[in-house]
Amino acid sequence: ELTGHQHYMYKEMLEQPEKAAAVIRGRLDDRFATARLNGLNLTPKELRAFRRVKILGCGSAYYVGQIGAQLIEDLARIPADAEAASEFRYRNPIIEPDTLYVVVSQSGETADTAFAVSEIKRKGGTVVGVVNAVGSTIAREVHGGIYLHAGPEIAVASTKALTNMAMAFGMLALHLGRLRDLSFADGERILTALKRIPDQIQAVLDDEAHIIDLAKRLAKTQNAFYIGRVRQYPVAREGAQKLKEISYVHAEAYPTSELKHGPLALIDPSMMTVAVVPDDELTDRNVGAVQQVLARGGEVIAITHASVDLQGLDVARIDVPKSEPELDPILLIIPTQLLAYHAALTLGYDIDKPRNLAKSVTVE
Ligand code: BG6
């Protein structure tokens, strides 16, 4: 099956443009500048009645849930947050009737996430799924949901499923937004941007040769920080997770804003920092943080946009295509996959089956 590709992870990364197109196919409604998500099995009236959204998942699915929560707050102005399903199940969570619960899972079999579904249902809550595996346990248990159409994902490190989870949240946020106060013009802005993402992912993948050079530098480091602010903090978390999962380089994610409140103490020439610096209202602050890292002798790789002026700072940059600010995280994540993959490849590890990890954890 691995025709021409060394690893499933690589094959699955390359499939992303095609799969990202598949998840939006037939679901974007130009006439009303919204997304059609009939699989949710919830009427507009029911959807309008929710006063909060709670997103649950594990690992990468949890980090994408954080991206989803921000998207929902941005576009629909409904308070939303994400939590690790593995924690939720052990803390006697309060289940509210006017909260929409959203569980996120590639396999649909993760025990912690499935348990969260049962607990929410037992307490009378409404739970929908963002799930890849059709007919899986979670897909069968939820009230409705959004299938990801990413096809089977074999590599432990999730790539295409994760991207499609983020695309699905883009559609869910658009849908909820257009039921509330998101204008037609803003709906169109998001819808148009969603349609462009598959080609833009391809553009990032086409930059592979350049990213390989930087991954080789990452492979040499003992420790790495991934930093990102607000919408980009989940990008940093996912990037750090990928690097540690498959290359075993110690990596931690921090919100860029927190750097000065502690982690800056660890910056020295042996520390590599991957900084997510998008072109947005916080660019200057993010560039300032990069400056602080450099001033302490740290090395920096910036995942950024071509329009960002890094003020001549001595950093390696990876420019990704610009989307709308709300959707930028989807594209800013892609280089972190290539960085982790090529770092692991350089170090000669078993990329598809990292030590101590399973593709889906179906036991407690
Ligand atoms: C973890 C896997 O155990 O489960 C991660 O190692 C994955 O790669 C997570 O993101 C969630 O899996 P799923 O199938 O529920 O999305």
TrEMBL record:
Catalytic reaction(s) noted: D-fructose 6-phosphate + L-glutamine = D-glucosamine 6-phosphate + L-glutamate
Keyword hit for Repeat: yes
UniProtKB keywords: Aminotransferase, Glutamine amidotransferase, Repeat, Transferase
Protein origin, superkingdom: Bacteria
Main enzyme class: transferase
Protein EC: 2.6.1.16
Record's keyword annotation contains Transferase: yes
Occurrences of domain SIS (ranges): 43-182, 214-354
Protein name listed in UniProt: Glutamine--fructose-6-phosphate aminotransferase [isomerizing]
Biological source species: Nostocoides veronense
Full-sequence portion shown in this chain: 243 to 606 of 606
